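Suppose you are handed only these lines of text.
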Amino acid sequence: MSDIGIYIHIPFCMKKCHYCDFVSYDNCHDKHEEYIDMLCKEILQYSEILSSHNISTIYFGGGTPSYIDSKYITKVLEVLKLFSSNIDNMEVTIEVNPSSANFDKLVDYKNSGVNRVSIGLQSTHDKVLKNIGRSHTYNDFKKTLEDCNKIGINNISVDLMYPLPGLNLNMFTDSLNSIIKLKDKYNIKHISVYNLEVHENTRLKFLLDEGYLTLCDEDTEYEMRNKLNSILEKNNFHKYEISNYAINGYESKHNINYWNQGMYLGFGVNASSFFNGTRYTNISDIDKYIYNIKNNISVISEKSELDKLSLMKEYVILRLRLMDGIKVVDFNKKFNANIFDIFNTELTSLKNDNLIIIDKERNNIYLSNRGEEVANIVWEKFV
Ligand code: SF4
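From them, the structure of the protein bound to iron/sulfur cluster can be written out as follows.
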């Protein structure tokens, strides 16, 4: 049986963060129960596929999965258990926000099979958290860590962001060092550090445009990136993907499946799936999602069947995100084609511009430091 990852989208949040452009809803308490019922029904609609594949990872993302009652997370896992007897032995992750992940919920998660908690911290500085509209403080984060520790959840991931309004180089370094100090006691095994993107129509865009908030200059951002790499590497968090660092053996299995172009099914509003060479995305309107599922109408809003060349291009982009890069042998085997024949022009040009390294000895291709900084230019060659 082939492996398949499962993504569950919980689109509810306590309040919208200033930078957020994800599909998430605040003030929607009345919809939680119905949404979860419909999401479970959507899972059951895929019974045939789920029964004939080996569920390898489960990931609850959002939104804020910890915002809703934990009984709903348990319910989704109970439905997934109909298709797998192995949930206790696979990576089961839930994203939590320190403002809503209380002790009792974390106990319920653990009892239902969750074994990896990903905490959205973003910064250890309350002033910065306030600037970006987060609903928690640094102390809330430490309380969540303490609770996970008491309960015995020993695979913790922490999300940080940079640059952020009000965050200078010293504060950023301080954030990293604070996490490092906590890592052993609280089993922090994984750190994701995302680059802030300022999206149109967000409150953050407005606050920056109107001069209420400012971001550091590019040189400082560059220094932040260097600090990030040096501090985390020095403390055994090896960088395995553009934005992700892990203690050896604790890389996110769920995300590695994405970057390997593995199959996954996403359930819930706006969730996407990749199955048998086709990408699917669900509708993003929650009311329509609930209505359609209830009435047995498809919730897929986009479907794109990738031909062989598109699959190869996509694979190159996905694998270049990983520090290991593309293993030439794997590419050639997967596509029954030689990567240097297919992408000779692109690879030669990127190599000449020092954006990628073609390592003849290790027989792989990966981004150079410069390539990482301007990754979008690299991706453009393959779209
Ligand atoms: S918690 Fe996440 S999904 Fe929710 S508003 Fe904030 S950034 Fe968006």
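What can we learn from it? The CA atoms of residues 38 and 293 lie 6 Å apart. The first strand starts at residue 3 and ends at 10.
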